[in-house]
């Protein structure tokens, strides 16, 4: 797996990451969603540099100009529900992309033990297409591995790009063993630890709850 960790270099991205972590700022759900969206836009720009381009002739009022445009067929799949703001940020930059949505949640047998349940998928064929898989929190990595197994049934995926906001080192190691070697991971920042319940520390809390409110 090829890991692109954007917090290796200082940029305005740090401001958005700081705000989604900040207890005071993250109480504003609309701002939290917008910051996740903006992070998705930055990650999308960096991701675009790894895609294939083909010259396209554009007619201007005064002549013609050749412009290299993305030639790959792309499908963006987000993990519900936390992935929705990140999905929108990516969609802002890849506005012609096909869209897919998949559910994944932890079904706990105890506070520390759980299995990943995938119960919903809406997707076009992924045959010979590049999959952009979006999930803001890469904790244990088990959710991403589970949804990838389901998505593979929709076609022979050419390549996978994973887009996340915060990852734990353990989660990165896990998915590196469960995704093809040429998979790219685009991550805004990396934390070292998981707690006994499998949540990222220091992380930011539950991204889905912060974006859309607490669930039952």
Explain what this protein looks like in three dimensions:
The chain is α/β, with parallel strands linked by helices and about 220 residues long. It has one domain: 3-Layer(aba) Sandwich (Rossmann fold). It has six helices and 14 strands. The protein has helices spanning about 15-20, 30-50, 85-95, 140-150, 170-175, 205-210, and strands at about 1-5, 55-60, 65-70, 75-80, 100-105, 105-110, 115, 120, 130-135, 135-140, 160-170, 185-190, 195, 200. Strands 1, 4, 5, 8, 9, 10, 11 and 12 form an eight-stranded mixed beta sheet that branches. The chain has a two-stranded antiparallel ribbon with strand order 2-3. Strands 6-7 form a two-stranded antiparallel ribbon. It is globular and about 65 Å long. The relative contact order is 0.18. The model has no long low-confidence stretch (mean pLDDT about 95).
Kindly list the characteristics that best describe this protein.
single chain, alpha/beta, Rossmann fold, 8-stranded mixed sheet, 6 helices
């Amino acid at each position: 797996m090829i890991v692109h960790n954007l917090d290796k270099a200082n940029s305005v991205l740090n401001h958005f990451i700081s705000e989604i972590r900040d207890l005071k700022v993250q109480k504003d759900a609309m701002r939290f969603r917008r910051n996740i969206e903006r992070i998705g836009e930055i990650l999308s720009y960096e991701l675009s540099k790894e895609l294939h381009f083909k010259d396209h002739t554009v007619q201007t009022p005064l002549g013609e100009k050749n412009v290299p445009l993305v030639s790959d067929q792309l499908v963006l799949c987000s993990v519900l529900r936390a992935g929705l703001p990140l999905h929108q940020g990516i969609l802002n930059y890849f506005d012609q992309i096909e869209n897919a949505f998949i559910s994944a949640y932890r079904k706990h047998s105890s506070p520390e033990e759980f299995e990943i349940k995938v119960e919903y998928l809406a997707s076009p064929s992924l045959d010979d297409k590049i999959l952009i898989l979006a999930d803001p929190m890469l904790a244990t990595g088990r959710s991403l591995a589970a949804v990838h197994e389901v998505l593979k049934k929709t076609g022979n995926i050419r390549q996978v790009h994973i887009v996340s906001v915060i990852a734990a080192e353990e989660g990165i190691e896990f998915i590196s063993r469960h995704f093809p070697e040429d998979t790219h991971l685009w991550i805004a920042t990396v934390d070292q630890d998981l707690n006994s319940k499998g949540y990222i520390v220091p992380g930011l809390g539950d991204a889905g709850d912060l974006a859309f409110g607490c669930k039952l």
